Amino acid sequence: MTQTLPSPAVRETASPPSRKRARRSASPYPTWFYLVPAVIYIGFFLVPTLLSFYFAFTRWDLFTSEWVGLDNFRTFFDQQEFSIGLKNTVIYALITCTLKVVLGLAIAMVLTSAIFARGYLRSVIFFPTLVSTIGIGLAFTVLLNPEKGLVNNLLGSVGVDGPAWLVDPSWALVSVAFVDVWKGLGLATVIYIAGLVSIPAEYKEAARVDGASAWHTFRHVTLPLLKPATSTVILLSFIGGLRSFDLIWAMTKGGPGFTSDVISSVIYKQYQAGYFGLSAAGNVVLFLVVTALAVPLSWYLNRGEVES
Q1: For residue 84, what is the enclosing H or E element?
Q2: Does the pLDDT at position 215 exceed 70?
């Protein structure tokens, strides 16, 4: 009895689904194509990260190292600068994150409405994001000079005595945070604009037909649908605030005294003083602080989201 083989089409139809999925998910690039980025990632990120964890437990210079265990961490936590820097880091991150979320959403709402020169205004808002952080820090150091700065001169022209922005201990950290918001507001606005234009117009039209006011439409339609954009802005702004260093160093160098020091500036001062092992331990602490705050925040913001 002759056995009839299935036709090629039938054999293709009867092929295991797992094989089809494997073919569909196969990368269009050859394996060697990933070699260069892998070498760059390992050489410039993974290896330095592992070495910093090792050197955090040593007393070392550029040529020799001595294992000291947890001594560097004990010294780091015993310093008064650490407690001040930790508090300032969290305050700085909360201020910058909150203002970027609120102002970014407000400006995005304006820039997605029917206003004159909308495209030009979007470019103006985003422009500070492209400028060097150090350049912005130096420029605002001049603008916020308590005696000759343009900001206080303008306030004085309307009868307001401007504070000593970068010299007064109660204003220094807040002043740098405001400049940080001015620089990073463009990115937050662009993310919100992308979220707003992706909302189907039918949802808002249906809300209007049902008699919803502009506020209720924003609260019950726009705001919930902007959750992915809001989560992105919060995470980027909060993590950026926790890791901030260059703007603070350019404007105040942690002063006056230690009043605007953050963890990153404390670490840099230790490195300047030649305490390389202590500064490596500080970097590990900063990594753990960012992870301990950012991971639960990310989980909280993204809970309830499902893949389509």
Answers
A1: helix 80-111
A2: yes
